[in-house]
Amino acid sequence: ATHDEAVRALKRAGRVVDLEVKFLREVTPYFRKASIISEVGWELQRAFLCPLGPGATSSPPAPRSPPRADTRYIPLQLTHLARNLKHPDPENRCIELHSPDGIHSCVLRASDSQEALAWFNALHSTMARSTQCALVEANRSLASIIGELKYIGWLSRRIGCEQNGRSSSESSDDTDRWQPVFVAVTDRELRIYESAPWSIEAWSRPLECCALASTRLAGAGNSSSVNSNSAAHQSTVFCVRCGTARGVISHWLRAETHRDMAAWARALVQGSHNAVNYQREFSFRCLYQGRPCQLIVHLDRGFSLLEGGIGPSSKAIWCHPFDRLKASADDGIRCLFLDFGADDGEIELDMECCPKPVVFVLHNCLSAKVHSLS
């Protein structure tokens, strides 16, 4: 009986109703399948870069799954594709899909590792093209806000290895030691987000932000300092070191493929070179022989130490090109040592904070100059 027929029958019935229920075995699998499928995947609440707020203009709605009980669509735009991230998979049969907001996930298991690899490669190629389209679309809206995006995507970050370049020696068999992060390289910055920034407002609020001019790539493809929960991932781990006034912040990051790691390494190195080429001159406050000064690092002219502040009346105490530098060192706390081979010997500068930003800018300037010659 239909629902309407059952309602009419109940209205005509007396105080006692006998209800007969029949078990239809042939349709039970269909309902069970529909129930399972309904829990798979996620729905996007709005389209990518959809404006927020009451005054926002309308935008295309986010794609939805079709109104069929036995079918679900999983949107792949800025979805995180991973293996052995949150679900241990010693047989390499599983593929993990995590929603852009990091809330939902879908784990697919293949019959064997070869089938899983084939599906992973197919998804990876499709999602790489989708990410590139998202980058182009984002640049139309974000270039004037955060600068031009050069490279974006998902990486896994080792938890507990961020501060002062020290990495934990604890075992990383626990998969929670790796945390998914969305990373963007702009023309001047390395930006890290907890999830894929879906709106213009979210793009302007990164979890962490480092200047590329004082950022260095270290240990690409070398996992000796940090363990991975899968041997297949050991050669796709790399370290990014950011020099700040508080010290060096090290991020151990893991890509999903060797090609991904190479692309990230290229984006970071080229980004650092482009950042110093764009700015060219960097100024750092310091103390020299007890006097307040400004240390200038210029991509073309090398080092200059000016009395007091920067201005037309500032007097240069000394100037040296890069090729005069014989050695440099720092104590990691506040002192920078420069040796230009002059009669004065080693020059000591009190940077009044961690000297690593100066050191990393110097390294990137020299690296950019060498790269321009090759």
UniProtKB/TrEMBL annotation:
What Gene3D superfamilies does UniProt report for this protein, alphabetically?
Pleckstrin-homology domain (PH domain)/Phosphotyrosine-binding domain (PTB) (2.30.29.30)
**Protein name stated in the entry:** Putative syntrophins type beta
What is the organism lineage in this UniProt record? Eukaryota, Metazoa, Ecdysozoa, Arthropoda, Hexapoda
Is DNA-binding a UniProt keyword of this protein? no
Kindly name one Pfam family recorded for this protein.
PH
GO CC list: cytoplasm; dystrophin-associated glycoprotein complex
- Where on the tree of life does the source sit, at the highest rank? Eukaryota
Q: Which InterPro entries does the record match to this protein? A: PH-like_dom_sf, PH_domain, PHsplit_syntrophin, Syntrophin, Syntrophin_4th
Instruction: Provide the protein's localization.
Output: Cytoplasm; Membrane
Q: Where is the PH domain?
A: 148-273
Task: Give the organism the record lists.
Answer: Lutzomyia longipalpis (Sand fly)
Q: How does it sit in the membrane?
A: Peripheral membrane protein
Which PROSITE patterns does the UniProt record give?
Answer: PH_DOMAIN
Keywords linked to the UniProt accession: Cytoplasm, Membrane, Repeat
Alphabetically, the GO molecular function entries are: structural molecule activity
